[in-house]
Amino acid sequence: MSRPAQSPAGVAPEIREYRESDWPEVLPILEEAFRAGDTYAFSPHSTAEEIHRVWIEAPARTFVAREPDGPVQGTYFIKANQPGLGAHVCNCGYVTAQRAQGRGIAARMCEHSQEQAVALGFRAMQFNFVVATNTRAIRLWERLGFSVVGRLPGAFNHQTLGYVDALVMFKTLVEGNR
Amino acid sequence: MSRPAQSPAGVAPEIREYRESDWPEVLPILEEAFRAGDTYAFSPHSTAEEIHRVWIEAPARTFVAREPDGPVQGTYFIKANQPGLGAHVCNCGYVTAQRAQGRGIAARMCEHSQEQAVALGFRAMQFNFVVATNTRAIRLWERLGFSVVGRLPGAFNHQTLGYVDALVMFKTLVEGNR
Questions:
Q1: Does A146 reach chain B within 8 Å, measured CB to CB?
Q2: What is this model's ipTM?
Q3: Mutating which of A152, A167, A174 best tests the B interface, going by the most B Cβ atoms within 10 A?
Q4: Could A85 and B158 be called an inter-chain contact, meaning their C-beta atoms sit closer than 8 Å?
Q5: CA geometry: angle A77, A78, A84, nearest 5 deg
Q6: Full-model pTM
Q7: Element (H, E) at B50
Q8: CB distance B86–A172 less than 8 Å?
Q9: Beta partners for B163?
Q10: Could B42 and A155 be called an inter-chain contact, meaning their C-beta atoms sit closer than 8 Å?
């Protein structure tokens, strides 16, 4: 009863592939996240063109999460993490709108991305740069089956804390050597 | 006395910035390395254009190593490993010509790259994808001050061994939080 009726917990957001008509809703969500400078390496001063390039053009696919007939609440991309002989491992990035935090949208996007990854032929998923102070994200990824497989000392220039570590997280999606 | 006179041990190679006129010598060295499919993720079937893009165009700087008045023996690039808030950590890739192996050229290039990194304002150097079976390289990087900070299970599709682990290696070059 403590949640507003227009955003009930437990209503699963719809996730579908990004369309260019989503851009006016997606851009401010990404700008808000990058400007904070506490989770993503993308410059807090990234231009719209730069954000479009890294989030929409460079990845293999981009998705948006929204409640049925509601506004966009989150977005994620999926792409190969390395070329050629490393291209069976994918990389994803997820951003949830500040106003939609705490409703399980990041978890739902991550689960969706794992299904997409397997459908696209990827065998594993790697996060290259999880900011060590972002404990909420780390706990969530661990709950969804990811392990911390590396720690990069001082690799993230946190906009309020200075240089902090970044973690490498990994989840095998398809077992077997061939 | 057991080494041929034309490649004496102890003659330090000259390292200088890449020029486009080096390309006819650099390309076959890189093709040879990538074709083996045992050290770099770049596809064994990479085209000359793809190799030029990743080794020459994308990096901040590319260098070549050669003995004075001799042929190119190795090449390396340096670039930021992440955008914006991770751009104080650089990434390098090194390739030594097969015919020039065992003469300390990779070590000399790595030392040179660390000097360049500091001169360019980088604070640390990260190797994202050191193939775990490439023990010669791992021992060399450790001797030059790098530590293994991560292990990516099955992340490299080795062309003779199948899926093998890749390591993340890291060296702090400049201490201090600001």
A1: no
A2: 0.91
A3: A152
A4: yes
A5: 145
A6: 0.92
A7: helix B48-52
A8: no
A9: B157
A10: no
